[in-house]
Amino acid sequence: MEIYIDGDACPVKEEVYRDAQVAGLKVTLVTSLSHHSGKALPENVNVVYVDEGADSADYRIVALIKPGDMLITQDYGLASLVLPKGVRVMHHLGYEYTQENIGQMLESRYMGAQLRKSGQRTKGPKKYSGEDREKFQKNFNRIVSELSKNN
Predict the structure, then answer these.
(1) What are the two backbone dihedrals, phi and then psi, of residue 33, each rounded to the nearest 5 degrees?
(2) What secondary structure, in 3-state letters, does 87-151 show?
(3) φ, ψ for residue 125, nearest 5 deg
(4) How far apart are the first and last CA of the chain?
(5) For position 102, what pLDDT does the model report?
(6) Which structural domains are found in the chain, ordered by start?
(7) Is the CB of residue 66 less than 8 Å from the CB of residue 3?
(8) C-beta neighbour count of 24 within 10 angstroms
(9) Is the dihedral angle over the CA atoms 118, 123, 128, 134 positive or is it negative?
(10) Cβ atoms of 92 and 128 closer than 8 Å
(11) Model-level pTM?
């Protein structure tokens, strides 16, 4: 089992690195070249850089990820592409994407885009809170535990 992070805008990378290292799991961060950093990362973390451009990281993740892996992303479209592969997918707010909820999420995203296209304003996301981070960590560790038992 490997954990993948859709990395350009992920606020929980450090938590994933730490908790995955404790669990003895490998993490692959997929991010664009513009986010290149010389920062030292734990031994269990591999970084895959992709070109700038719409969906470059998504395409790479879809190509790399395997059944039984886990993905952290806020991208509903990417989640919908990897769920059929038998991947567990989490949002950084702590909820899990599933075959049961992804259709509604994609429809909601589409409706929001239609509203914005017609000139209406929609609210952006709330500021990421400590409560959000705690919820993520709790659910992340639960899923990692479940996946570890299955492997």
Answers:
(1) -60, -30
(2) CEEECCCCCEECCCCHHHHHHHHHHHHHHHHCCCCCCCCCCCCHHHHHHHHHHHHHHHHHHHHHC
(3) -70, 150
(4) 7
(5) 85
(6) 2-150 (3.40.50)
(7) no
(8) 9
(9) negative
(10) yes
(11) 0.88
- Euclidean distance between CA atoms 50 and 109, whole angstroms: 25
Q: Which two tokens stand for residue 24?
A: 């003895």
Name the residue with tokens 């790399």: 64
Among 3, 22, 26, 32, which Cα is nearest to 92's?
Answer: 3
Question: Average pLDDT for consecutive 10-residue bins of the chain (151 residues)?
Answer: 90 94 95 81 94 87 96 93 96 93 82 83 82 95 85 63
Indicate the residue type of 116. Answer: R
Q: Distances in Å between the alpha carbon of 90 and those of 26, 51, 71, 114, 115? A: 17, 24, 6, 25, 26
Which pLDDT score is estimated for 116?
Answer: 83
| Other residues' Cβ atoms within 10 Å of the Cβ of residue 125 | 7
For 35, other C-beta atoms within 10 Å of its C-beta total 15
The answer to whether residues 76 and 96 touch, using CB atoms and an 8 Å cutoff, is: no
> Exposure string (b/e) for 97-116, b if CB count within 10 Å is 16 or more?
beeeebeebeeeeeeeeeee
